[in-house]
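Bench notes, afternoon.
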Amino acid sequence: MAVNADCVVLKGFTYTSSLPASPDCCSWPFVTCTNGAVSGLNLADGKVQGAIPSDFGKLTQLTSVYAPNNALTGPLPDLSGLVNLDYIFDDDDAANNKLTGKFPMSLLQLPKIRSVWMYTNGFDGPISSDLGKASSSLTEINFGTNSLSGEIPSSIGDLSKLSILHLDANQLTGAVPDSIKQLRLLTEFWVNENQLT
C-alpha cells in the first residue's frame, strides 16, 4: 500500500495534540517507515485517544505497535491484514488503555505475531478454546487485569514457544489445566487474583 494511503489510516486516530504539518506521515516523529510503508508506531503516553481506526488492518507492513498509557477505547477492529505484525503494546510498565470486547483470538493468530500485551483493559468473556491454534511464533501473552471469565483452555499446552503468560486479575474459574506442564519454555505464569481452584 502506498505511503499516502498508510497516512490516511493514521489520520483516523484522535490525537491529543496537533499533528506535524507535513502530510507525509513517514516524517512524523512517532512513525517508522520501511521502503515507503508504515512499519512501526510509537504512540505511547497520551498521544491518542478514542477508537482505533476501523481500517487499521490495512497497514500490511506494520511490524510493531507501542501504545501504552493512552485512552484508546472500544473493541479492536479487524486486524487480519496485519500479516507482518510482530508485537503489539509490548511494554513492561502497562498497556493501560480502555479497550473492550471479547478475547481477540484473531489477533493471536496473525502469522508473525510474537508478543501481545493487552493488560489493564476491559476485555471480557471466555478465553477461546482454540487458543492452541494461535500463531506458532507466539512467545508472550499478557491479558492481566481485564475481565476474562471461564476456564483456561487445555489447548494452551499447544503453544510450545510460550515463555510468558499473564492472566492475573481476571475472573477465571476452574483448575489450571495439566497441559500447562507441556510449556517447557514458560518462565512467567501469573494467574493470581482469579477464582481458580
